[in-house]
Design brief:
Layout: H1 6-20, H2 22-49
Helix pairs in contact: 1-2
Length: 79
């Protein structure tokens, strides 16, 4: 109990065909297949277009302010 046998799936398939008709079921199947194929092709293209991370180095500029005080204010030296 809990799993479906092949007879159950045949009955479900017959019920779906009777409800929606063969033309609708065929078009849904082909649309789903086209969508999956497009998704797989898109994923394949994205993985081939991405260069390795090490080649994406960006130069970093550091801006240092020369107005840094060399001593702390008297109020911040008290703990």
């Amino acid at each position: 109990m809990g799993s479906f046998s092949a007879l159950h799936w045949v009955i479900v398939l017959v019920a779906v065909v009777l409800i929606f008709g063969t033309k609708k079921v065929t078009s849904i199947g082909s649309d789903l297949g086209d969508a999956l194929k497009g998704f797989k092709d898109g994923m394949r293209d994205k993985t081939n277009d991405v260069p390795p991370l090490a080649s994406q180095q960006v130069p970093i500029e550091l801006h240092v302010s020369h107005d840094i005080p060399t001593t702390l204010p008297a109020s911040s030296t008290q703990w």
